[in-house]
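Re: weekly structure request thread

Next one in the queue (195 aa):
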Amino acid sequence: MNKVLKDAVTRMVPFGSRVLDLGCGNGELLAHLQAQHGCTGYGVEIDDANVLACVQRGVQVIQLNLDQGLAMFGDRSFDVVLQIDTLQHLRNAETMLRETVRVGRMGVVTFPNFAHWPNRLSVLQGHMPITKKLPYQWYDTPNIRVGTFSDFRALAEKNHLRIQDAFGLQEFGQVRWWPNARAATAVFQLSADQP
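Done, posted below.
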């Protein structure tokens, strides 16, 4: 995970939070939040090697296919639920988005922004983009969905989710002006739309 993304997510997670990291990979982010931010919680991961890496880092991890949902967790079980570059891999992305804010008081979701201008240029030239954020060929990508900053905002509104903060990320930091075209990564902080 790059430093800009790790720092942005860390700033969004309140100190001492109980965190659920969906698709936690090797547990790097959750280990960082535990060590540097006083957080507790669990990672959820399906890959055997990543589960082992989490255990080796001291991160509590549950091996679970996210396409099966989060029924094992009660409402508001966590302060923060993270979906860091996970949504584009899920078949039930809309359901998991709703589950994120059901299980957590707040959700933080990041994903590759397909509307970033270099991606648009590649498509205009007749090719699927290959970038640092989308480093695969069209035929071997693990991403089963592509989305844009603007599309995600519309999906959140459709599902009655409150967007508490939204911005893009580039290697140099946050992009708040015109992130749909200028940012490689979209970042959203969400909660359920209730009083």
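The first helix runs from residue 3 to 12. The chain has one domain: 3-114+143-192.
Next request, please.
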